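Hello Y.,

Per our agreement to keep a running log of every chain we model this quarter, I'm adding this entry. I've kept the format consistent with earlier entries: sequence first, then predicted structure.
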Amino acid sequence: MADVRGVHITRLIAIPTVITLAVTILRLVGELKHWPTPWFSTQAGGGGAVVGISWLPIIFGPYFALKLAGAGEGAASIGKAIGFAVGSLLVFVAGAFLFGSTLNHPNALTVLGLVLMLGSAFVPGLGWRSLGNTLVAYAFAARIPVLIVMYLAMTANGGAGWGTHYDGVPPALASMPPLRKFFFLGVLPQMMLWIGFTAVVGSIVGTVVTAIACRKKQAAPTAG
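Predicted structure for the entry above:
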């Protein structure tokens, strides 16, 4: 059963992963060629550019949820699924607060904040296992290519970088060695913060859309 479900998840996330990779490549090309804002930005942190992958869970969360529900892998209780999705948001927010409030003076609470943000990715699976597993798999599939791009960007030109947001850093950290920058500004955010964000957002939107779709489906015969 585990193997079957693993293959199922791989097939389910295949097209969204390819689309996400295409957006990542498009963003990199756009920044290297200095295409206009607000579509692209080379500022550290991304500058709120429109072209990016952070908003894709809003689309793929419902896509995964509806596909799973249609294949008989829906939540046993949609109310419970929504509850755990909201719970994951609370865990993520708590982690983000600890991380943000201690970032200037890192300590054990900073690490705890990161752990909580990563841990939030696994909370939705308590209410809807197949959706939770799918979103975690998609999150890693989406963020690992970004991590590779960040490594290449941060170590390029002897550490001078490409001049994109992938290697952009705050002025206070500009003198940090490339590999150290990559770890603190690449590995930790991409593999913890953004994994949690992707799964949390996808689960909330996915469960809510599925609940609405199921309610409309149940009401359709009565309306007819």
